[in-house]
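I'll show a record.
***
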Amino acid sequence: MSLRNKGKTKLEDVNEGSENKAFETASMVGLGVAAVAVAVVGAFFLFGSDSKRKSMKAPGRNYRIFRDDFERDPGSYFRDLRK
């Protein structure tokens, strides 16, 4: 019997081992969550929209288009809409 285990029962040793496993598992889950959060924030900055150009809901469609493109030639937008 080592000095570390002197006076401990086998049950106490088992409990100490399970506490270490629980801490290890919680640490791994925490690191995984942090990694996902960093990836999401990085993707937002990498693929974020260009805030200098204003957008608008496309007339007759369910998506957004750039306002300056539409205002430049609205007639061609509506012509192309019905093709």
